[in-house]
Amino acid sequence: MKTARFTGPRKIEIADLPAPKLQSPGDVLLRVERLGVCGSDVHYYLDGRIGDKVLTYPATLGHECAGTVAETGEAATGLRQGERVAVDPAIACDRCDQCLSGRPNTCRRLQFLGSPDEAPGAAAEYLVVPGRNCFPIPAAMTLDEAVLVEPLSVGLHAVRLAGLAEGGGHPIPRPTNLRPAPGEGTSETVPLRPPVRDPKLAVFGVGPIGLGVLLCAKALGPCTALATDLVDRRLAVAERCGADWTGNAGAGDVCAALLRQAPEGVDVAFECSGDPACLDQAVEVLSPGGTLVLAGIPAPDRVSFDIHTMRRKELRLSNVRRQCGCVGPVIEMIGAGRLDARPLRTHRFPLETIGDAFELVAGRGDGVVKAVIELSCR
Fold first, then answer.
1. Beta strands 189-190 and 170-171: pairing type?
2. pLDDT at 188
3. Residue among 165, 267, 207 at smallest CA distance from 39
4. DSSP 3-state assignment of 110?
5. Three-class SS state of 65
């Protein structure tokens, strides 16, 4: 099978390797047909590391994927050969304290596709994954939409952490294959913050995650969404995704522009760019009692805050670790027509030119939002 091997910073080669074999009865062999280029992949592509996660070359990368089930293990129930699926790339152990408390995204023994020393990357024609990580998609849903499910799930998780939902508060699902603890149901509602009616939101950075936040927030209920970025073509996509106002952060005082739209400040600020400068901007435009949600991945190991402004405003700070129980809901939202993922995919590449895709995303060229690698024409 053809496999993209990362052999050094900004170096990729296409190798012909044996297809993987099923490792356990619960596994499936997936024919990968679509692969999204994620910002975290680009960090590894450019620098060979994110924090203390360091690549050992040659490496495989890629985790946003969708495809068709080619083979199933005898215990991979609910899946059949030829079925099209979206993939949750986070393989949780289902046994640690985090998994048992409904937090598989912070599993102590998490294996993430394409992460160093964890699980193989999805930039290959075939991939073995646990069946429980494969989610069948509706007949009307395309693979181009299915490959966007994972980043959209991160957006939905960020929105949930901010407490934005229909009716206020959000159910935090437990993994369906685990027994609830004594006295617990399977999807108890946990009000993470008091509900705000028609909240005002600011999204800093409208790449795939920022747009996912925007789409999910708009799909869940009335809100006013303000979006900033440095790329005008991305801001145009944000408008297609429902942004009520957009502004180029490089064209002037972006905080002043935001506060003209929301004179008393915004209720929630989503930092989705990874740019530390946006942290100060978010703190400045948040209203007292507001929430700062960190979804972007900064390049430096340490960032700073205006702690006195945060203290005086009594701001809440929430980090986003991938997603938790959001893959299924996102598929349902797309299938029901409540969430239109199509504006996110802006560029297509065959596997043979995956290096061009990574360079495009790394340089934010040509207004790219999501570059998708096509491993088949279906």
1. antiparallel
2. 43
3. 207
4. coil
5. strand
Sign, CA torsion 91/94/96/97 = positive
Ranges of H-type helices in 134-276: 143-146, 149-161, 208-220, 232-240, 254-261
Average pLDDT, the chain: 90
CB atoms within 10 A of CB 191: 12
Q: DSSP readout, 82-104?
A: T-EEEE--EE--S-SHHHHTT-G
State the CB neighbour count (10 A cutoff) for residue 34.
25
Domains and CATH numbers, the chain: 2-148+341-374 (3.90.180.10), 155-319 (3.40.50.720)
What is the pLDDT, as a whole number, of residue 300? 84
Backbone angles phi and psi of 138, in degrees to 5: -65, 160
Q: What percent of the chain has pLDDT over 70?
A: 91
User: Residue 306 and residue 118: Cα distance in Å, rounded?
Assistant: 36
- At 202-222, the pLDDT tens digits run 999 999 999 999 999 999 989
H or E element at residue 335: helix 327-335
CA distances (Å), origin 275, targets 158, 182, 365: 17, 43, 17
CA distance 366 to 373: 16
| Residue 31 C-beta-side C-alpha neighbours within 13 Å | 15
Residue 129 pLDDT > 60: yes
Give the CA distances from residue 352 to residues 16, 151, 239, 348, in Å, rounded to whole numbers and listed in that order: 12, 24, 33, 12
| Surface-to-core class of residue 42, CB atoms within 10 Å of its CB (0-12 exposed, 13-18 middle, 19+ buried) | buried
Tokens of 31: 């024919």
pTM here is: 0.89
